[in-house]
Amino acid sequence: MAKIQSVINLETVNMKTIEEIRAERLDLIIKQLGSQSNFAEAIGKSPSQVSQWVNSSLDSKSGKPRSLSSSTARKIEKILKLPNAWFDTPINVDNSGTMQLSNNYGNGHQSNNQYSMYSQGGESQPATPAQQDQFLKVMPLLDISDGLQYALGNLPQDEMQRAGDKIATFVSHSDKSFGIKMADDSMTIQNAADDETIFKGDILIIEPMMEPRDNDIVLVCLDYSTRQRPIIARLQFGISGGYMINQANRSAGYIPMPDDAVICGVVIEIKRRIIEPDIVRSRHDDGWQILNTLQKAV
Fold it and tell me: Quick one: DSSP state of residue 194?
């Protein structure tokens, strides 16, 4: 009977249209992010646009229900760092009727999906809702000074979670994590592999609940007992075991971390917005056609 039920469930999944599959994925990710508004903010779209996708509102020109197009789905996957074709992958239904994320992305490989699977005893198991919550969550987006105060516990966490700008990530993190938006281009990070620059406007995801390790990028509080000044720096462990820091690859190189300084978090991700979300929303035009840019011979 269980085998028959599995076949029925598989057939049910395969009978779904791509629009239905994307609608289920859309519903899933919105639930993970907490609301349509949070999802809209994360992808740089207006809440009304997201509402039209969710409710399959009729297009005024074509009369057809609005849904995620292939190009839009790919863009969202890129923004949220989802696997390619994540929106096009059916959600499995187990024998109990529970919906689970598939970890097959149609590329010929079975990839472990960190968003829905976890490893236990060498085997991948479906993640519980609590475990999935580690991977996708909206967090406060602050300037570096407020971020420092947030990490030090001087700003109320509940209030900051409700108010102000937000950012989301799929990187595993604690409920203490937050984002900071860089105000300048001064931080250039070098390592043996390449040069990496943190530009003005880049968003750094900071994890305070993590022990710093050699070569981490970290948020440092200088003058902890007095002025509490924040900097972003590359960390290195000195020969004697003390912390060494290098900010913006100054010619002095690594220097001992000053007395009365505290490492307030580790940078676990760098996000880069090429165009700000409010500008993206203002420029969005449902009537725009890419062929408008076609160059014609004179």
Answer: -
- Return the amino acid letter for 220: V
Q: What is the CA radius of gyration of the chain?
A: 23
Q: How far is CA 182 from CA 20, 114, 116, 264, in A?
A: 39, 28, 31, 16
Residue with tokens 């530009």: 199
Residue the block writes with tokens 């880069």: 272
Question: Long-range CB contacts (< 8 A, 24+ apart) of 239-243?
Answer: 243/212
Q: How far apart are CA 30 and CA 222, in angstroms?
A: 39
Q: Which amino acid is at 86?
A: W
Cα(92)–Cα(115) distance, integer angstroms: 14
pLDDT tens digit sequence for 243-298:
999 876 555 578 889 999 999 999 998 888 777 777 877 888 888 888 888 877 76
* Distance between CA atoms of residues 140 and 145, nearest Å: 13
Domains of the chain, with CATH numbers?
2-132 (no CATH), 137-271 (2.10.109.10)
SS3 (DSSP) at 125:
strand
pTM tops 0.70, yes or no: no
* DSSP output for 230-283: EEEEEEEE-TTS-EEEESTT-TT--EEPPTT-EEEEEEEEEE--SS-HHHHHHH
pLDDT per position as a tens digit, 192-221 = 334 457 888 889 999 999 999 988 999 999
Burial of 41 (0-12, 13-18, 19+ CB in 10 A): buried
Q: How do residues 105-143 score in pLDDT, each as one tens digit?
A: 222 222 333 333 333 333 434 444 554 444 556 788 999
